Amino acid sequence: MSELLDDEDVRLRLRAACEAAGGVRAFARKNGLSASLVSEVATGIRMPTKAILACFRLTRVHKYKNIDAMEESHVFGNL
């Protein structure tokens, strides 16, 4: 199973990639993105976009979690 990342993990990768590229503007220019978008995602103002995720060959997935017995009786009204 592939490693699941959260938004903060993506932001960390983005900040590291910007640093390696020589800054936000250099990373943005190299990847055909606006510097403002890159900066807003890197600082958590915006969620990672498809364009940002594509730079790291990532895609957004949805996950589901089992509800424990206590929550289940609340959610389903003791069926």
Q: State the total count of DSSP E strands.
A: 0
The class by helix and strand makeup works out as mainly alpha
Quote the average pLDDT.
Answer: 89
Query: What characterizes the major β-sheet?
Result: none
Query: What is the overall number of helices?
Result: 5
Question: What does this 3D model show about the protein?
Answer:
It is a single chain. The protein has 79 residues and is mainly α. It is 57% helix and 0% strand. The chain is elongated, with a radius of gyration of 18 Å. The model has no long low-confidence stretch (mean pLDDT 89).
In short:
The protein has 79 residues and is an all-alpha fold. The chain is built from 5 helices and no strands.
Features of this protein?
0% strand, 79 residues, mainly alpha, 5 helices, single chain
Topology:
Elements (H helix, E strand, L loop, with lengths): L6 H15 L2 H8 L3 H8 L7 H6 L13 H8 L3
